[in-house]
Design a protein that fits this description.
The chain is of the alpha+beta class. It is 33% helix and 31% strand. It has a four-stranded mixed beta sheet.
Length: 72
C-alpha cells in the first residue's frame, strides 16, 4: 500500500503533535508507516494502525491518504 505525503504529514501532526517539521521528517514518517503496515492485508477503507492503536489509517484507491484519531 502506498503512503501519501499528506498521510505522513498528518501522522506527524496527530500522532506526535508536531507543528513544525522538515521534508526529511515527513519522508522518514512515510517510511515508518510503510514498515508498520507492510504485512497488513485489508479491503476496508479504514483500519487501526498496528503500532499506534489510537489512530486510524484512511485508504482511498489503494493508498493511505490520511491518519485520524480513533474515537473513544
Amino acid at each position: 500500500m502506498r503512503v501519501t505525503y499528506h498521510a505522513a504529514e498528518r501522522f506527524l501532526q496527530r500522532v506526535f503533535q508536531f507543528t513544525n517539521y522538515s521534508k526529511k521528517q515527513i519522508n522518514d514518517a512515510r517510511k515508518l508507516i510503510e514498515r508498520d503496515i507492510r504485512n497488513l492485508r485489508t479491503d476496508r477503507s479504514r483500519f487501526i494502525l498496528p503500532s499506534f492503536p489510537d489512530f486510524l489509517g484512511v485508504v482511498t484507491d489503494g493508498a493511505l491518504v490520511t491518519i485520524i484519531p480513533k474515537k473513544s
